[in-house]
Design goal:
Blueprint (H helix, E strand, L loop, with lengths): L11 H7 L22 E3 L2 E5 L15 E5 L7 E5 L10 E10 L5 E11 L5 E12 L4 E7 L7 E7 L6 E11 L35 E3 L3 E6 L7 H7 L8 E6 L7 E5 L10 E10 L10 E9 L2 E10 L6 E7 L8 E6 L6 E11 L2 H16 E9 L3 H4 L5 E9 L3 E5 L7 H10 L2 E4 L5 H4 L9 H12 L3 E9 L7 H4 L3 H18 L6 E6 L6 H6 L3 H12 L4 E6 L12 H13 L6 E4 L8 H11 L6 E6 L6 H16 L4 E6 L23 H12 L3 E5 L5 E7 L1 E9 L2 E9 L6 E6 L4
Parallel strand pairs: 21-35, 23-24, 23-30, 24-25, 25-26, 26-27, 27-28, 28-29, 29-30
Antiparallel strand pairs: 1-4, 2-3, 3-10, 4-9, 5-8, 5-10, 6-7, 6-9, 11-14, 12-13, 13-20, 14-19, 15-18, 15-20, 16-17, 16-19, 21-32, 22-31, 22-33, 33-34
Keywords: Carbohydrate metabolism, Glycosidase, Hydrolase, Polysaccharide degradation, Repeat, Xylan degradation
GO biological process, one term: xylan catabolic process
Pfam families: CBM_4_9, Glyco_hydro_10
Length: 751
Amino acid sequence: MEKNTNMNHTSDDDYDKHHTNEEQEKIILNPNFEDGLNNWTGRACKIVLHESMDGGKIVPLSGKVFAEATQRKDTWNGIQQEISGRFQRKRVYEVTAVVRIFGNNVTSATVQATLWVLNANQREQYIVIANVQATDKNWVELKGKFVIHGSPSRVILFLEGPPSGSDILLNSLVVKHAKRNRPSPPPFYENPDFGVNIIENSEVVNGATQPWFTLGNCKLSVGQGAPRTMPPMARDTLGPHKPLAGNYILVTNRTQTWMGPAQMITDKIKLFLTYQVSAWVKIGVGVSGSSMSPQNVNIALSVDNQWVNGGQVEVTVGDTWHEIGGSFRLEKQPQNVMVYVQGPAAGIDLMIAALQIFPVDRRERVRCLKRQVDQVRKRDIVLKFSGLDADSFDLFPYIVKVKQTYNSFPLGTCINRTDIDNEDFVDFFTKNFNWAVFGNELKWYSTEAERGKVNYQDADDMLDLCIGNNINVRGHCIFWEVESTVQPWVRQLNKTDLMNAVQRRLTDLLTRYKGKFKHYDVNNEMLHGSFYQDKLGKGVRALMFNIAHKLDPSPLLFVNDYHVEDGDDTRSSPEKYIKLVLDLEAQGAAVGGIGIQGHIDSPVGAIVCSALDKLSVLGRPIWFTELDVSSSNEYVRGEDLEVMLWEAFAHPAVEGIMLWGFWELSMSRENANLVEGEGEINEAGKRFLEVKQEWLSHAYGIINDESKFTFKGYHGTYAVEICTPAGIVLKTFVVEKGDTPLIISIDLSSM
């Protein structure tokens, strides 16, 4: 890959000079307690200094003393220090603390570093920096980063977390400027062997199962009668293929769910390559009394004894063959990698055919998608000119230069209230996105954390920013079906009070913001939770849609869920998502759109496209609502994002893409950001901006003998420059969606 050395190039000397002042910063005073407990206080508890504790069993890891936060009555009690006035806004800091716990028979607990921020308008905010699982046996290091975007009046850093009655011990706590790690170079793939199966004897020819072996005491044999065609998702990636042998591995005598065939592939895996996983699977009755309910089948990898998901599918005993598809990527050198097939209950026979694991040429996929995009997203445009000078037309060609200045395809991002205090964040946001969604600020647990105390101030601030910049906004979310996300006071309500609270939430939200949100995620993640349905009955989900539509008919009402597009979760397969939507519609719910969150790892286009094709039969617009990708290598991260952007843009059923953030420390996933915490656009961000540029159409040529200039272009805003004998004429026009050619009339006589 060619690297542009002129972009944001920083020499080692410049880089070091940039950080020479960090040693002079003293964010935390008395970090090692050399000056006793000066500058430290207890957060609703007592703090004590020790040289040792527990009869000499606990001594400092470094220095001579450590502090104890004791007499804690609640989890938020701990040791704290105010750092107001000693930090710079928009500067990334790294916190390193050495901690452990003691007392009350608690042997292990989470210790968390948190910032309490009081903003100038007296708005309180809590920022989680990091947490660690601490024990009463050893000191452990707690490490994380934070950035403060605004100009708060007060900031306090404190430790919290363990249950009441147990103590937090702190040996040291240091805050310093976080150095920006230089990005790793793009991976070099020597002989990547795209499309070549790394599984040996996948078709078990000649009746032999070697080098397959069993996990557990199950038995392997070879059967005949498997499909002779490759599974569709693999075929989509690999293209035409010779017929398969029709053999399969039969696994019998299974007494545990994890029993099945396995094969070592350690030496065949290449780091940072994306691998597609594909197979046919089926299950049989097996021993008498085995389960007849639907069963999960999982192709998994054991990477140094850690489970890695290679794809899952739900099948039924006696059913037909099912395709299983997934993907994975390894970014650290493993000692041992084993692939195995598992899942069905004990006693159920398992059949696997044509298991393939092969590296994917994702750049070739993108090249194909770009050709497809021309058909899906572009419209024929005819510039029809009048008023040409007939005498000069034959002698002087009229040159036309067309440049698209804005693509109207919805491309948005998640934002948080704290983000908009940073003018650099706002600048990138407003220049590169035309839609937005709020991370947490519209969720019920944010607007009404305590019963009856409703506060929409954060959401109002964010909505004002978006409206002021002509940015459309999705409403996320009215309810969240996963019980762990429901605030405690709501969980404690009886059925009658809960129904009243649900109706009040709908009325408050939908009337307050009537006409202002273009979409709403009505009841988030219904495939992964059922709190409201369990408490209020099956009909409550459709009721939520119907009441919302009655209160505000203008927004599209969405379902929204995760792992729909990647084959990783049988609970949210496209088939189950389709059933959910059809069930809601059968109850009269006004389902207006299908939300695919898109928190995806190592994306493979064929797998994503397969899910989109299946969901498109619903005839509803599909949006990627929370798209993010993650890789420790910024170039690979950018490639992941490029794959997803083009896959969505090339599919006719997809009508919008929302990223789940872009700024470091403002995202829910690590190694997912496009912009560093202090504003530098990283390699993934550069790739994102390059894709955006490719989504702008350009054309150049001369007016033909019919006084026309024709081209194909994306929807959006254009500027056209016409060079005539009399001078240069400038005009703008807008291309809307349409099936017929768009004719733009331009009169040159009056210009």
